[in-house]
Amino acid sequence: MTATTTAEELEDLYARLSKAGLRPLWTITEQLLTSSPRPKAVPWLWPARVMRPLAEQAIRLVPVERGGERRVLSLANPGLDGRPYAAGTLWGALQALGPGESAPAHRHTPGAIRFVLAGEGVWTTVDGEACAMGPGDLILTPGWAWHDHTNGGDAPMFWFDGLDLPMIEALDGIFFEPHPEARQPVRGPHDSAEHGPVDGTAAFAAGQVTEALDPAPSPLLVYRWADTDAELTRLAAATDAGTDTGMVSLEFTNPVSGASVLPTLACGMHRIVPGRNMLPVRRSGNTVYVVFRGEGHSVMDGRRFDWQAGDMFVAPSWVPVEHHAATPADLFSLGDTPVLRALGIYREETLADPQTVTSTFAPEEPS
Ligand code: GTQ
Ligand code: FE2
Asked: What pTM, to 2 d.p., does this model score?
């Protein structure tokens, strides 16, 4: 502003800019180019004891048919203005399928993973491969793969769905297509997709994947809990249960390339032993955690989130996170790290001191 510029002249400029569909960067730069990520999503937790009865109520009231397609309760982060996403880049949800039900076959450009919480008898067919689902199993549905779910058992089944849907939406890359038949034909015997090109142990990386990038999804579609459990046990023995932190981590990998399981999504498993103290870690990119086993709490941004089996919680980008187990605990994680790594912008940092807990999260309970 020169000495002779008047307030009216400036107002006139801003009015004309606005009419012309132009925004002056100097008025918004601080919101845009923040010194570190400012995710709109907030740290949040969805307890199983709230979600499960609602999923059971939905099984009783809402059939799974063409139209609705899926009985899915999506995690809606309260920071995202009602959008049905767990965080800015990640879809997380609880899916429920009653006995004898079948969720119709379709495909879409967003990629998906399932992590099974409880039950048996469901199989997901992925591009003709029928994959049985059991507790602790990870099943991949890569982008544009045909998929349908069938409950051939006599009890309802519940699992976690993770998708890169918000990322693909941000890229305006969503395509969806229903299969001409409700159930796609199954090719060959059930469960052939878990006998991958290499044996099970090569399908994990200790810690996390840091290098390999692969635009192709993993040809291995199923990671059985027995293999994951054995690998966690092996890692825990090799590192004396992650001596300092009390946590050992693995990432599920594409056994051909060593990359994360999908080009957009990283899946991990973390075993935490009680009585150790880990320092807070913050990472760029979002993470959704699913408690598979055990009890404990996590501190995110100075707030304590108590959890138990079946709970789901989200750590938004750059929020300091530390996990504490009250009993031996296993956490599944879903993250967008492969995308940040592909772009060369991934960051992570371990803080020097534990966080001071200033509040405890209390979820809202439906009356
Ligand atoms: O099971 O195909 O949670 O298409 C969201 C979208 C699950 C699925 C979700 C989907 C599915
Ligand atoms: Fe789907």
From this structure: 0.94
